[in-house]
Design goal:
mainly alpha
Length: 129
């Protein structure tokens, strides 16, 4: 597989891994870094972009949900606001955070920024290991 194909696979894997679909973007990132160590920064950027885009899909899915009753756990997210999305990388809880942030109609630009920071940090730690 070429470097370009590997990076495309990484984007797809990281995008799907951030949605409600299962994905193993960490393993794909590890394999790309092992095969193409010179592409470290490109791989980190592409993985972060894909994972953030997937998180934003969940965010906008939440935005489309009708606002009916207020839930106790959602109030906690409202109190912390978009900085809580630094944890959007966490398995299962991250998907729920993105969905709830959209449902709360939090600022999408700030949401994307905090998601990207948290997701980049996770991928950067994986690259260091």
């Amino acid at each position: 597989m070429t470097e370009t194909a590997s990076l495309i696979s990484l984007f797809i894997s990281s995008f799907l891994g951030a949605t409600l679909l299962p994905g193993g973007s960490e393993a794909v990132l590890f394999m790309v870094l092992k095969s193409y160590p010179e592409a470290t920064w490109s791989a980190l950027g592409i993985a972060t972009l894909g994972n953030t885009a997937g998180g934003m899909v969940s965010f906008f899915m939440g935005w489309l949900l009708p606002q009916t009753q207020q839930l106790k756990h959602v109030d906690k997210l409202r109190r912390f606001g978009t900085p809580a999305l630094l944890l959007a990388w966490t398995p299962l809880a991250g998907d729920a955070l993105c969905l709830a942030a959209g449902w709360l109609r939090l600022n999408p630009w700030q949401a994307a920024l905090f998601m990207a920071i948290g997701k980049f940090a996770r991928y950067w730690i994986i690259a260091l290991l």
